[in-house]
Structure formats: C-alpha cells, structure tokens
Design brief:
It contains 15 helices and 23 strands. It has 510 residues and is α/β, with parallel strands linked by helices. InterPro entries: Ald_DH/histidinol_DH (IPR016161), Ald_DH_C (IPR016163), Ald_DH_CS_GLU (IPR029510), Ald_DH_N (IPR016162), Aldehyde_DH_dom (IPR015590), ALDH7A1-like (IPR044638).
Length: 510
C-alpha cells in the first residue's frame, strides 16, 4: 500500500487542523508544523498547532461532556470502547504503516503498536464491569461502611514520539470506561498518527451518540504541555517522556495540588548469570538493545555478564550484530530503522564520544550511515562498548542503540550495579538457577517497577501494571489496578438505625 493511499484511508490531508473535540475539528489558529519521515526525509503533511484560545475551547468542551459521560453506565461506556477496538482492527494495516513511516520503527513494531491498542480496548471492556469497591464493618451498631470510586473529570494525556499511539490508548481507554473525558497532547514529532487515531475514534463515538468533547486533541509544542500542566480544569495529567520533562510537569501539577502520572526515562539492564541459557539471553539482549532503534523507555542499555561466560557471550553478541539489517522500516526484513530525527543522531554521536573519552572500548563500532537508502541522515549503527557502570555517560539514558557491557563475579554485585542508576523502570535476569531468580525478585533484588526472569527488559504486556521507580516517575499504566489512578476514592458510612451513636464511643448530649 503506497503512503498516499495510507494517508487517504486515515483521513490525513496535506494540511491538518491540530484541534478536535471529537468529530468536530476546530480552527487551531497556531503555527504550522511539518511532519517529515525519518525513513526517507520526505515531508508527509503539515499540522496547524493550537493557540491558547483553541486549547481552552477543547478543554471547556471536555468539561461539559464529562457531566453527561460520567452518568453513562460503565458497561455502556465499555461497549463503546469495544467498538473502538473493532475499528482499530479494521485500520490496523494503514495505521501501523503510518506509525512506522512517521516514527521510523519497523513495520512489525508498527503493527504491534496498533495491536497493543486493540488489546487495551479488550482489557478495558472487561474492566468496565469490574470497577469494584470494598465494604468494611463499622464499629457502630446498625451502620454500614463502604468505599466507591468516582471519575476525576478531564484527563490530560501527554505522549512521546516513540510510541505515538499506544501510550495514548493505555491511558484513554481506561480513563473512558472509568467515566473520564480525555484531551490528548501528542508529540509534535508524530502528530499525524494522533490525527489518524482521532479520526478513527470520532467515527465510533459519533455512531454511539457519545457527547462531543469526550475525546479531544490538541497538537502543539512545549507551551501546550505547560498549559495543560498548570490547568486546574485537568485534575490528572499523564505524561510520558524524558525525566527532565517529567520533573517539570510533576512540579507544575503538584503546585496546584493536581495529580500526575509519570512514565519517564529508563536505564534498563539484563543480568546474564553463569547459569543462563545463553541463546535465550542473546535473543533478549539483541531485541532489547536494537528494537525501535534503541528508542524505547524499556530498551536494554546495560548488560552485566558473569565473568565465566563473558567472553563467550560477547562473541555471540558480535556475531549477531553483524547480521542486523539496517534500513527502511517498511521492509519486513529490516531489523533496525532510523532514529526519529537529526537531533537524536547528534545525541547518539555525542554519547559515543563521551564513552570513548571515559575509556570505553568498542566491541561493535558505531557510526552514522550515509549513501543510498540513508538519505534522511537518521540511520546509525547499533554499537556495543565495554564500560564501567559508574561512568556519567552510562548513568544517563541515551535514546539510541548503544549497549554497554560489563563483568561481574558475584550476583549481589550485579544487582547492586543494576540498581545503581537514577532510573528504575525495567530489569531482567537470565538464569536457570531458582535461587538466583528468587533473590533477584526479592526485597534485596531489583529496585525497578518491572523485574523479569528469562525474558528481556522490553515488550511488556498490557495485563500488568506498567511503570517504574526513582527518576522513572513512579506512575503505573495499563493493567492490574492501574485504573485507580483515573478515579477518586470515596468512603461512605450509612446509618440505618434510629439513633446517632458517635465513633470512638464519644458521648455528646444536647
């Protein structure tokens, strides 16, 4: 399918408005931003960004819609989300291709991202019938206590370029069944994928007479995110991106006593034990390090390898890296696509320079690719360096396919190295030794929000809560009881007696 046909199927114009309240597109009135594909450097289309006036109009509409939407029975809201999942199944191919072309991830990963959206819709449908509370025994006779959960209102979703559609769906589909309305501020680097999603969901919502404003879109830059973070009409802001961005959002939201759900940077490690199945470990490490060209928050950035298997595993890594196909992500034979833009390429080359200056030894050399097929200037070589864990460059996240490897002799030392970074998102151990795996998962083990055994750091399922600790932000999205982040808890006490006994046995006579 040619890209012009893909854009046509998804309702993408040459110039698109960047503001919607559902099926209604507003005049965004701001500056135009152009979306260029990192695949070939070509312009895909342009989007008009929102002004403060247009942003306010979208938020106001979301507030108005909330008053009606929250009164719909949760299973009825779930039925609408079920239909969104069906629509995404219908548009999986063109949407997956647009995600791949606009962001640069491989076609299979583009399809996989849309499948994540479908999966979270399925999950949210079931959840719509399980928004449970608790009952508690009262200390007072003929009294009943229970707790229930109510929707918050307008949920603001700020998403990043690396997952241009999936992260929005993790938040919005759960928020919708909980009774909230959502306003999405996508990355200005991937606005067209967001507009395509808005077109798809708006059709479903309109067919079900969902109030206009339940699903809003505002395309803009940093200022738009700042408006949302400081907006008292938005009780919850869910933000995905760098730790630097998250600190700014968190501080601004906290200053108005709002809520923030932060999914920020990762500096993820795999520990390869002497008892590991090295073939499984290799597969996990390779996909974790080079998938999405190293532009996942769960990308494997560090490998701690036991000294007894270090040389053998290093040889396997070198041999596997030689087989990687770097090129057009729309070609299904490609393993590694481009970085998102030339700024990302500059960050990659700068990190390599820092590693070399610190004394890092190249195991697989990096570099920027040039020539036929690489005209966009965004293609780089996945590389491997032998390093020390405490080097400053290793302590920071570089959104690129740079893998750092290091030795260990004692498992506790490897766990300490893994934990000794500011970030705490995803972690893995490769071992067939039960005691080692249990230590890794114990209180003395990984300090990350995700800890895996014999699978890699990347590729989380939607059924579990996704998120991390420390500078990763502490947020949780997707499965388990993450739905509670989108609701407010209320404790209720009901007196069905003809008396008014007080708590703690207090006597009060009038």
């Amino acid at each position: 399918m040619k890209m012009d046909k893909v854009l046509g199927k998804l309702g993408i114009e040459k110039v698109n408005e960047g503001a919607a309240t559902g099926a209604e597109w507003l005049k965004a009135k701001g500056e135009k931003i152009e979306s260029f594909s990192p695949v070939d450097g070509k312009k895909i289309a342009a989007v008009t960004t929102v002004t403060r006036e247009t942003y306010d109009a979208v938020i106001d509409k979301a507030q108005q819609a909330f008053a009606e939407w929250r009164m719909w029975p949760a299973p009825k809201r779930g039925e609408v989300v079920r239909q969104v999942g069906e629509a995404l199944r219908k548009y999986k191919e063109p949407l997956g291709k647009l995600v791949s072309y606009e962001m640069g991830k491989s076609l299979q990963e583009g399809y996989g991202e849309v499948q994540e959206m479908i999966d979270i819709c399925d999950y949210a449908v079931g959840l719509s019938r399980q928004l449970y509370g608790l009952t508690m025994h009262s200390e007072r006779p003929l009294h009943r206590m229970y707790e229930q959960w109510h929707p918050l209102g307008v949920v603001g979703v700020i998403s990043a370029f690396n997952f241009p559609v999936a992260v929005w769906s993790w938040n919005s589909m759960i928020a919708f069944v909980c009774g909230n309305t959502c306003v999405w501020k996508p990355s200005e680097k991937t606005p067209l994928s967001a507009i395509a999603c808005q077109n798809i969901i708006a059709t479903v919502f309109k067919a079900n007479n969902v109030p206009e404003g339940v699903c809003g879109l505002v395309v803009g830059g940093r200022d738009t995110g700042e408006w949302m973070s400081s907006d008292t009409r938005v009780p919850l802001v869910s933000a995905t991106g760098s730790t630097r961005m998250g600190k700014a959002v968190g501080a601004t939201v906290a200053a108005r006593l709002g809520r923030s759900l932060l999914e920020l940077g990762g500096n993820n490690a795999i520990i390869v034990s002497e008892h590991a199945d090295l073939n499984i470990a290799l597969r996990a490490a390779i996909f974790g390090a080079v998938g999405t060209a190293g532009q996942r928050c769960t990308t494997t950035r560090r490998l701690m390898i036991h000294s007894s298997v270090y040389d053998a595993f290093k040889k396997k890594l070198v041999a596997a890296y030689k087989q990687l196909v770097i090129g057009d992500p729309l070609d299904e034979n490609t393993h590694v696509g481009p970085l998102i833009d030339k700024d990302a390429v500059a960050a990659y080359t700068n990190a390599i320079a820092q590693v070399k200056k610190a004394g890092g030894k190249a195991v697989v050399a990096g570099g920027v690719l040039e020539g036929e097929g690489y005209e966009s200037g965004c293609y780089v070589k996945p590389c491997i360096f032998e390093v020390q864990n405490d080097w400053e460059v290793v302590q920071h996240e570089t959104f690129a396919p740079i893998l750092y490897i290091m030795k260990f002799d004692v498992l506790q030392d490897a766990i300490a190295m893994q934990n000794n970074v500011p970030q705490g998102l995803s972690s893995s151990i490769m071992t067939l030794n039960m005691r080692e795996s249990e230590l890794f998962l114990s209180h003395a083990g990984s300090d990350c929000g995700i800890a895996n055994v014999n699978i890699g750091t990347s590729g989380a399922e939607i059924g579990g809560a996704f998120g991390g600790e420390k500078e990763t932000g502490g947020g949780r999205e997707s499965g388990s009881d993450s739905w509670k982040a989108y609701m407010r808890r209320q404790t209720n006490t009901i007196n069905w007696s003809d008396q008014l006994p007080l708590a703690q046995g207090i006597k009060f006579s009038v």
